TrEMBL record, chain A:
Annotated Pfam families: GerA
Protein name: Spore germination protein
The family this protein is said to belong to: Belongs to the GerABKA family.
Transmembrane segments: 323-345, 390-409, 415-438, 450-473
Origin: domain of life: Bacteria
GO cellular component: membrane
UniProt key word Transmembrane helix: yes
Organism (species): Paenibacillus faecis
Lineage: Bacteria, Bacillati, Bacillota, Bacilli, Bacillales
Biased composition (Basic and acidic residues): 18-31
Length: 534, 409
């Protein structure tokens, strides 16, 4: 059941292009016919901010009719302003100078000007309220106001410095595209469009955030995505009422199905190829302006364990790597707890020679195995977190401290046994195998309660803990889809691409729960045979 | 809705706090023992002293066994002994001398002192079977000519833990020489409770200077003063030791029981030479028959072997005739091995350690039911045993004919 929140149904969130936005109190918000009055209000509202450029240009024969051009410095592209606005203004001015005899009203001059500008600028639209005016102005568009008219023009001149398309930093692959999303909304949508050139790839845009007015886009392939899920996404996004959205994480927390779970029920990625693949499976992508991390719903547990590279390498390699990854999850979750349980409760399970070795190492250790493991695991988590936050050029200090001080010195001082260092190390390495950072954090957090269970009840405690974990996982839903699908409920045909990854020519259907209408990827024959039309 | 979820959160929070407090009650941590709180027992021995049990336990000193700095000043193992009216009591009384509680799960050898074996072993076996710490995969042996306690005091080279030496030595000699037999607890209990079969255990004795064997000098010299050696099999009448089989007889016994994995035997050739053959595989089938009113046992043995060593001139191993001759000689030899042990047991001990009664029970349960009471006294000593050995020579090693054939006269 989705978490319901108190929300106000306001007009703030709407669909761009379908209807113009209205502020709640639109009657008081209308533009004045008087230019100076407009400019005064604008200056006042913006607090005379220095990055707002306001140019007043006299127009016409009498030089008394002013027009005003408003833009935000740094957000608006000066070249675009020059090309599509200034040139027109200049042209019109010279034309007016040549036709001095024909007396033209300032009002008609202004009207002509706006009409001509809108001809040169393909993203222009009229504006008659301050709310729209401010929003456009502050998102990089240029506003042209004409004296004597209560209607202005917005010309699309967005163009600011961004990072450009860079290499992926969080999800690296050996084989596969290198490009990653950037902070720019438009760049991100274009990266997806470039991969799926189909008219059915639809993008719905809305703005969320009473103060930030952040662009949020819903992207899906019409006909493949389940319309019910798309509608649910729309509904949940519409329900968000908050002042700011600074990253997709804000959205994630507002629309996720369950809050009290360590497991993420919404997938995020910075890779356009992953988004393209997910869209083609019938999922819905949520793009947020200002962050390279795009959300995908519904998210299944196994998606977090799959890497995009699984589909680029050959099937046998991918299947092997996937099995390795599942094994790593198991180790990263249970490694220390099994060690604790076996060495403090079930010594009879160890081979005799190994028992002698472990017993010899533990002779001088002052702590119980559980405390020992807890110390080391906490130390590791601290090291890891420090490694993330540290400036890159002093990062090597961490590894020195980690290996020398924690590893060697602790063992030699007889505080920690060498076997425990090995267990913690292999657990740490295993947790980094997971391609999704938020999922590996989830498993790392769950390690601690499991260790406590192991320290108190041995393997019995671990089994109870794992059982509870599995029950919890099975109870989770992501936008109506069972989190554990296709393992629970077991969907036999989806097993082709869950624990193993079979060759692409065998993956003839899309996941059943996600794409109800259009499920065929390819006719289900091996590639060598002649293809028959289904 | 919103209010309800807050209430739910409160309830979850309250439960969490409750559980957190409950964990305080668990601080005792049921059955939890750190590795450095264990005294890992690897061998145990029980002797009979004035109608009481004397339990000796060989405990590993882990720091001496697995430390990187090899050759510490301490012995690799230590021996604790305690006496008690029951064996369980003795085991617990041991905490008076041991700093840690004895942990029996990794027990590898259980030695039954000869005095104990003669008095009867059944009484304390129940404890070993019942106590959850004992696994049933340790080997039981009987000491010969010494107490179990003394036997466990001997220091051994190569395997610094004596229990490991015994364990490996018993396994190896069972596998490649065959006069000894590994008997685990469950097998022994089976033999004890099985009608028509008496138990057998391997014997263990101390060779050489017993006093010197107890000091570290024993392992410092290349030739050790004292050593531990397995010697033949001990015959039990139900649960009491009544006699011993020597090495040859023990091997005969192993052939009758079948499953000799590897062994060595020789047959004469030429004037004084011998041909040694290595057994590589054997199966034996024991069937019971009733002829008239008399039970009879038929043993069919199928043995495979290789030529291992030739000492005489003129043996042409390329000819199948020679191989055939060797095979028939070996058949007689193996038959002889079996016959001698059967005869000795029939005459001297009169207990059916071979399981012949069991074979009759399987083939003729009616007859067995009528006569099982007097099987050992009336039938077994006079039981006719027909033996048929089928020996096959498969390979002759890396040579055909011996170079001795070509040697100058």
């Amino acid at each position: 059941m989705p978490l319901r929140r108190k929300h106000r149904q306001t007009g703030e969130i709407g669909h761009q292009g379908k209807s113009p936005d209205h502020s709640p109190d639109s009657s008081e918000d209308k533009l004045f016919p008087d230019l100076q009055a407009n400019l005064k209000k604008i200056r006042q509202t913006l607090g005379n901010s220095s990055d707002i450029g306001i140019r007043e240009i006299p127009l016409g024969e009498s030089q008394k009719n002013y027009i005003a051009i408003l833009y935000t410095d740094g957000l608006a592209d000066q070249n675009k302003i020059y090309e599509s606005i200034m040139k027109t203004v200049a042209h019109l001015a010279s034309k007016a100078a040549g036709q001095q005899d024909q007396q033209s009203s300032p009002f008609s001059d202004g009207k002509r000007l706006l009409a001509e500008i809108s001809l040169y600028n393909q993203q222009s639209r009229t504006v008659n309220d301050f709310f729209t005016l401010f929003r456009s102005l502050l998102s990089g568009d240029t506003v042209i106001l004409v004296d004597g008219s209560a209607e202005g023009l917005i010309a699309g001149t967005k163009g600011w410095k961004d990072r450009g398309v860079m290499e992926t930093s969080a999800e690296n692959v050996v084989r596969g595209p290198r490009e990653a999303f950037s902070e720019s909304f438009r760049t991100n949508t274009s990266l997806i469009r470039r991969k799926i050139k189909d008219p059915n790839l639809w993008l719905e845009t809305m703005q969320i955030g009473r103060v930030t007015h952040t662009d949020v886009g819903i992207m899906y392939i019409n006909g493949i995505a389940n319309p019910e899920i798309v509608q649910e996404v729309r509904d949940r996004l519409n329900r968000i009422d908050v002042d700011s959205i600074l990253e997709s994480g804000y959205i994630e927390e507002f629309i996720q199905d369950t809050t009290f779970t360590p497991f993420p029920t919404i997938y995020n990625t910075e890779r356009p190829d992953v988004i393209a693949a997910e869209l083609l499976e019938g999922k819905v992508a949520i793009l947020v302006d200002g962050t390279p991390f795009v959300l995908v719903v519904p998210a299944l547990l196994i998606s977090f364990l799959h890497a995009s590279e699984d589909y680029y390498q050959r099937a046998d390699i991918s299947s092997f790597l996937r099995i390795l990854r599942y094994l790593s999850v198991f180790i990263s979750l249970l490694g220390p707890s099994i060690y604790i349980a076996v060495t403090t409760f079930h010594q009879e399970m160890l081979p005799t020679q190994l028992l002698f070795g472990l017993a010899a190492q533990r002779e001088q250790i002052p702590f119980p195995a559980f405390v020992e493991a807890l110390l080391m695991e906490l130390t590791f988590e601290i090291l890891r977190e420090a490694g993330v936050r540290l400036p890159k050029n002093i990062g090597s200090a961490i590894s020195i401290v980690g290996t020398l001080v924690i590893g060697q010195a602790a063992v030699e001082a007889g505080i920690i046994s060498a076997a425990m260092v090995i267990v913690v190390a292999i657990t740490a390495i295993s947790s980094f195998v997971l391609p999704a950072f938020n999922m590996s954090i989830a498993f790392r957090m769950l390690r601690f309660p499991l260790m406590a269970l192991a320290g108190s009840f041995g393997l019995f405690g671990i089994f109870v803990g794992v059982m509870a974990l599995i029950l919890h996982l099975c109870s989770l839903r992501s936008f109506g889809v069972p989190y554990m699908a296709p393992l629970a409920p077991l969907i036999p045909e989806s097993q082709k691409d869950s624990i193993l990854r079979l060759p692409h020519w065998l993956l003839s259907t899309r996941p059943r729960l996600l794409s109800k209408a259009n499920r065929t990827r390819r006719p289900g024959n091996p590639p060598k045979k002649s293809r028959s039309e289904n | 809705m919103w209010k309800a979820s807050v209430l739910g959160m409160k309830r979850i929070g309250a439960l969490f706090v409750l559980f957190a407090f409950l964990t305080l009650l668990l601080s005792g941590c049921w059955n939890r023992r750190e590795l450095n709180e264990l005294a890992i027992a690897v061998a145990a021995g029980v002797d009979r002293v004035d109608d009481r049990y004397r339990l000796s336990v060989q405990v590993v000193v882990p720091g001496q066994v697995a430390s990187k700095k090899a050759g510490g000043s301490q012995a690799p193992a230590t021996l604790y002994t305690a006496e008690g009216d029951t064996i369980f009591e003795a085991a617990r009384r041991m905490t008076q001398v041991s700093p840690r509680k004895i942990y029996f799960s990794h027990l590898r050898m259980f030695l039954i002192g000869e005095s104990m074996a003669r008095a009867g072993i059944a009484k304390f076996l129940d404890f070993l079977m019942r106590d959850h710490e004992f696994r049933t995969d340790f080997y039981l042996v009987t000491t010969k000519g010494a107490t179990a306690e003394d036997t466990l005091k001997i220091m051994t080279p190569l395997e610094s833990i004596p229990a490991n030496k015994l364990f490996n030595s018993l396994q190896t000699s069972e596998r490649v020489w065959s006069p000894s037999l590994t008997v685990t607890l469950d097998e022994l209990i089976n033999d004890l409770s099985n009608e028509g079969k008496h138990p057998i255990l391997t014997g263990l004795e101390i060779t050489g200077n017993r006093e010197a064997g107890e000091t570290p000098e024993n392992v410092n010299a290349i030739k050790t003063d004292a050593n531990l050696r397995f010697v033949g099999l001990a015959i039990f009448k139900v649960d009491k030791l009544i006699g011993w089989l020597n090495e040859t007889e023990s091997r005969g016994y192993r052939y009758i029981k079948g499953g000799v994995k590897s062994s060595v035997a020789f047959v004469p050739c030429g004037d004084k030479g011998k041909v040694t053959l290595e057994t590589v595989r054997s199966h034996t089938k024991v069937t019971g028959k009733i002829l008239g009113s008399k039970p009879e046992i038929e043993i069919k043995a199928f043995v495979e072997g290789n030529v291992g060593a030739v000492e005489c001139r003129g043996l042409d191993l390329i000819q199948t005739k020679t191989i055939d001759e060797l095979e028939s000689k070996m058949e007689k030899k193996v038959e002889q091995l079996m016959k001698s042990v059967i005869a000795k047991v029939q005459e001297e001990y009169k207990v059916d350690i071979f399981g012949f009664g069991e074979a009759i029970r399987r083939s003729h349960p009616g007859f067995w039911r009528r006569h099982k009471e007097d099987w050992d006294d009336r039938f077994f000593p006079n039981l006719a045993v027909r033996i048929k050995v089928d020996y096959h020579i498969r390979r002759t090693g890396t040579l055909n004919n011996s170079f001795i054939n070509d040697m100058k006269e």
